[in-house]
């Protein structure tokens, strides 16, 4: 795997100031639940901000707030200098070209009844692209994410998890967005597929200059993909800074704990990850032995 390349001269794309998100409580007179408190982040053009934290810390909510899918109760979200904190439908429609999302689960995020070509052409059609131009763009997108052009006439179920995630990435790229919110996009994949999909994210950034808000509970993943990292804990950002500093020499005790035990919520996945790591290390050891290099 390659590491994230250093960011170009920084031009701010997204800025979040003192953001508060409160969800309505259930039932009459139920109290509101504050999911985010006083969040401040900024993402430059061509930059990746990794958002890390345990389950329930508010990572997804922050991504959703940026996309206009969570209620902003206070503070401000600015995109390319424009206040989008309370963007209406019309402004969101324009923004949807510039901001896209890739979700965690490649098995449920694609319409199982549609051929890949139609899945990729959908956002192009919505934005009014002619059929011939859309067809050409779909081929470009498949090529960009490393899928064969005959994928056009195949259904999602004919693809592996990693390939489906490539389709989801291609769909997100269709309208050449400036920002992609990536919500745990490799968490459902096995370790070696994770590595290949992370490399694809890096290559796409290099080729297109897109920015990522990259949500993950896995510090290893975030370290690899991000220029800067923000650590969330109970709805607040407790630490943020350059990826190598935050992930190697954290200041906040919570980040130090995260570093010691990268939390993986599901015990089965935890076990599988341990086994995967062991297998990879063993493969590396055997390869090194065969090459006559001590492991
Ligand atoms: N639509 C909602 N209505 C009410 N509460 C919500 C809603 N969505 C999230 N929450 C709550 O907000 C808090 C933050 O949730 P969020 O999903 O943002 O955390 P997360 O860090 O992304 O967690 P995970 O890694 O498990 O996805 C949690 O306590 C969650 O229960």
From TrEMBL:
Keyword presence, Metal-binding: no
BP terms from Gene Ontology: peptide transport; transmembrane transport
Keywords: ATP-binding, Nucleotide-binding, Transport
Pfam families per UniProt: ABC_tran, oligo_HPY
Entry's Gene Ontology molecular function annotations: ATP binding; ATP hydrolysis activity
SMART domains: AAA
Domain ABC transporter residues, every copy: 14-259
InterPro entries: AAA+_ATPase, ABC_transp_ATP-bind, ABC_transporter-like_ATP-bd, ABC_transporter-like_CS, Oligopep_ABC_C, P-loop_NTPase
PROSITE patterns: ABC_TRANSPORTER_1, ABC_TRANSPORTER_2
Family: Belongs to the ABC transporter superfamily.
Full protein name: Peptide ABC transporter ATP-binding protein
Organism in which the protein naturally occurs: Pseudarthrobacter sulfonivorans
């Amino acid at each position: 795997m390659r590491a994230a390349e250093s960011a170009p001269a920084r031009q701010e794309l997204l800025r979040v100031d003192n953001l508060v998100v409160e969800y309505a409580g259930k039932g009459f007179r139920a109290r509101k639940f504050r999911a985010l408190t006083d969040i401040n982040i900024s993402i430059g053009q061509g930059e990746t901000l990794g958002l890390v934290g345990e389950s329930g810390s508010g990572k997804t909510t922050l991504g959703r707030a940026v996309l206009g899918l969570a209620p902003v109760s206070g503070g401000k979200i600015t995109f390319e200098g424009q206040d989008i904190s309370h963007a209406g439908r019309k402004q969101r429609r324009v923004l949807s070209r510039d901001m896209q999302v890739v979700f965690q689960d490649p098995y449920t995020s694609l319409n199982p009844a549609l051929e890949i070509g139609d899945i990729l052409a959908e956002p192009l059609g919505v934005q009014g692209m002619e059929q011939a131009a859309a067809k050409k763009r779909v081929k470009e997108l498949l090529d960009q994410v490393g899928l064969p052009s005959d994928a056009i006439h195949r259904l999602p179920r004919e693809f592996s998890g990693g390939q489906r995630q490539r389709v989801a990435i291609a769909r997100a790229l269709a309208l050449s967005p400036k920002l992609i919110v990536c919500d745990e996009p490799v968490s459902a994949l096995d370790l070696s597929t994770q590595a290949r999909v992370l490399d694809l994210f890096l290559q796409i950034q290099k080729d297109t200059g897109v920015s990522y808000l990259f949500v993950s509970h896995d510090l290893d993943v975030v370290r690899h993909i991000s220029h800067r990292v923000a650590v969330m804990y109970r709805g607040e950002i407790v630490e943020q800074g350059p990826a190598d500093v935050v992930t190697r020499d954290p200041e906040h005790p919570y980040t130090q704990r995260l570093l010691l035990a990268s939390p993986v919520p599901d015990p089965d996945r935890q076990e599988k990850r341990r086994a995967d790591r062991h297998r990879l290390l063993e493969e590396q050891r055997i390869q090194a032995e065969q090459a006559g290099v001590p492991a």
